[in-house]
Amino acid sequence: MIRRAVETDVEAIIEIWLSGSRLAHSFIPYDFWLSRVADMKAIYLPNSETYVREVENQLCGFVSLVDDHLAALFVYPSLQSRGHGRQLLAFAQTKRKSLSLCVYTQNLRAVRFYEDSGFRVLEERQEIHAKQPELVMEWKAADP
Prior knowledge:
Layout: E1 2-4, H1 10-24, H2 30-35, H3 37-44, E2 49-55, E3 58-66, E4 69-75, H4 84-95, E5 98-104, H5 108-116, E6 120-126, E7 133-140
Antiparallel strand pairs: 1-2, 2-3, 3-4, 5-7, 6-7
């Protein structure tokens, strides 16, 4: 089941985000992610539209949208490759006619995932916080 996140989900969302970031972004020191936890709780999550995927009362992952931007999509590392991320992304795509996102160029698995899901690269640039190259990608719903 995918549902809107509630306040009691925040700690699990942070845990999913931290463990997923550590795995997917091994090229960035883990201390960087730890230093961003307060901002996640105080700024990013409260200002986003966040949905969680729950299976048997356990949160598997989450997706956060800010306007037409896919700000985050994370699945617990031990639950990856089971379709949870695809379901979360497909759900987000039903909520918007187009989506943009940013993904680190070194996160090849995620880049392939988004390309396979219909996203195309618009540009490559330097991300300002982690100072890593990232791709700006975009998806548009097919016209009926």
